[in-house]
Amino acid sequence: MTIDKSWTTIRRRGSSNEFWNGLQHFLQMAKPFVNDRGFIKCLCRRCLNNASHQLEDLESHIFRNGFMFGYNQWIHHGEPATSNAGITVAGPSGGIHERDEIFDVLDDIISEDADEEAVGGSSSNEQYDDLFVALRSELYPGVSSFSSLNFLVKLMHLKVLNKWTNKSFDELLKLLKLAFPKIDLVESHYEAKKLMTKMGLGYSSIHVCKNDCVLFWKENSLKDTCPVCSESRWKLQSGKRSGKNVPHKVLRYFPMGPRLKRLFATSKTAKLMRWHSTGKSKDNDVIRHPVDGKSWQEFDKRHPQFAGDVRNVRLGLTADRFNPFGNMSLSYSMWPVVLTTYNLPPWICMKAEYLMLSLLIPGPQSPGKDMDIFLRPLIDELKELWVHGLDTRDAAYENGVFRMRAALLWTVNDFPARSSLSGWSGQGYRACPTCNEDTPSMRVIGKTTYFGHRRFLPTNHHWRSNLQFDGRTERKRPPRRFSMAYILEQLRRVKTGIPGKHPNYGGVKRKRGDDQLNWRKKSIFYELPYWVDIELKHNLDVMHIEKNMCDSLLGTLLADPHKSKDTDNAIRDLAKLGIRQELHLFEDGNKLMKPAADYTFSEANRRKFCHFIRSVKFPDGFASNLSKNVAQNDSRLLGLKSHDYHVIMQRLLPVGCRSLVSKNIWSTIVELCTFFKQLCASTVNVSDMVEAQK
To answer: CB–CB of 424/433 below 8 Å?
Structure first.
């Protein structure tokens, strides 16, 4: 009987039943020809029959490296020398090896090694052998539906979804071992993590100075003390280092190159990575994806070579603080840095499974001005991806290998995080990064306020001549637009400070000169070769803005003493400006009284509004149960989340306050809510945004 060898030339081995069945039939044929030590010549493209391995290792080598070329008669593996290399049907494979889904995952992970002659790389030695052993192992004798590796992956997935602690996971493994003595499973969560790391789910731990001065990385990796503040890298006990070296801080870095390559490892996702080229809007008045915006289009014009291959990756970055200890009183600020891929369609790129955690910056303090210290590994990788790129297999095309490059288009943050990333301080008299040195501001009681918003209106708008805003007419034009050359000249004047928070070094507060404006540093993003060509470098997150606006609006309408903007100091400021006399404080005997404003609810109307919020019913999954957020005395709303503010602002507020305030107040609220509704829509009309500014 002739032997089918057509399966040996299949490149997409993980998704081919033919390759898997042929490989199993080959191993069965070669099994009787192992030597007395259980070894046989390996015919993978790396070993080329020059090395010998055990039969189970031979399987992983062929799968990982591919079948060697030119070996047409398998004389070392059971085929007689006179055999005719004809074609027949390969024997069936059964049991657990029959199309385990993890097989495809492993094929994606080691695809670079499997196609080494196409890419020009070299395969890793034995790093995947443990995975193949776990893939071949039955979970329990007689159970063919699960391999040991498949079961472990699903168990780890359940741990993440249900937030099991490491200790509870260890206890579960012990229980499974006790109940099923013959089960083939790891002993602890630590061993499970070691195995998962080989599947590309690991990260790099980088030690950090306790004062955030430097990373103990690259040139500082072997140092035991900080080169800036001379503090020890390790935690000390009684002035001495303990038996085990424990660092003060650890930065977790998740390399993005392998994860970007994996987006092209399956044909479905590889095709979606071209969506920004094939699915963009044909109407110039419609924006439904960043590719329809001016900043993206200008970037493509300035970098035509990068834009020439639609598979090159466009990234966005966001960072924000959170307390990993939940609502505990412990003050702790940890900062995740997350990347999103804008090549994907808008209904996919923001889903959790396509967001890539890049850095996990440790606390307990916010990095602040030292954010660049922690961004160093990410920036170095971004520069490498821009200049050299990565050889990547494109599963959408057979045998498709291309040089993938990547660019960071912008960041999206709230205002405090924007200050840490951009280097422009969001405090002081020049806090606005757009107006820059022309920021209109003045000092009022207890804070700095910013005015001059009527400058953005058309020159003939009637609000420009209204004296109710600040007692003056507005004749200024919109703020000038600063060129990149002018911004770089400003940054050239910025003095480089000492990094870190040590009280004798980087923690010393220094006063900025007038020529430095509000610049605290030149951001590390300017090390990227293309950063100066990006028009919108740092964007504000509309979710935070909408939440803050709605919070202040509700606080003022409900006269919440903790959140209302209609404070006594605000009214005194109105008196100093000589405007809104009907709102000024007045004396009633020995007391100062505040008049009731028409933009606040009366006590009866507060109850009506809260009762309205309490009575609203939503479809499942649309919003949370807002009735739980209404205070018992129906006087205010408590404990609202960002999505709750989103629903109230765009759906409930225009309806709920219609009969509770005057018509001019209600119409203004409706216009504000309509603006956010248009801005947050899945499709934005440019003409609507232009009209909203008038």
So the answer is: yes
* Average pLDDT for 254-267: 88
What pLDDT was estimated at residue 384?
95
pLDDT in tens, 138-192: 788 887 777 888 888 889 889 988 889 999 999 999 999 999 988 888 899 999 8
Owner of token pair 């004296």: 467
Distance CA 356, CA 254 (A): 8
Percent of the chain with pLDDT over 90: 44
Burial tier of 192 (Cβ tally within 10 Å: 0-12, 13-18, 19+): buried
Is the separation of the CB atoms in 265 and 393 below 8 Å? yes
| DSSP codes joined into one string, 199-254 | III--EEEEE-TTSS-EE-GGGTT-SB-TTT--BSB-EETTEE-SS--BSEEEEE-
Rounded Cα–Cα distance for residues 54 and 274 (Å): 43
- For the purposes of burial, counting CB atoms within 10 Å of the CB of 323, is it exposed (0-12), middle (13-18) or buried (19 or more)? middle
Q: Can you tell me the distance from the alpha carbon of 218 to that of 240, in angstroms, rounded to the nearest whole number?
A: 26
Q: Residue 586 and residue 261: Cα distance in Å, rounded?
A: 69
Rounded to 5°, the CA angle 413-350-622 comes to: 100
374/363 Cα distance (integer angstroms) = 12
List, as one string, the DSSP characters of 455-484: GGS-TT-GGGG-TTTTSS---PPSPPPPPH
Backbone angles phi, psi at 633, to 5 degrees: -90, 10
DSSP 281: -
338 touches 357 (CB < 8 A):
yes
CA distance 394 to 149: 26
Q: What is the dihedral of CA 655, 658, 661, 667, to 10 degrees?
A: 90
Q: What tokens does 529 get?
A: 């070769």
Look at the pTM and tell me if it is higher than 0.90.
no
Q: What is the 3-state secondary structure (H, E, C) of 279-341?
A: CCCCCCCEECCHHHCHHHHHHHHHCHHHHHCCCCEEEEEEECCECCCCCCCCCCCEEEEEEEE
- Work out whether the CA dihedral 442, 448, 450, 451 comes out positive or negative: negative
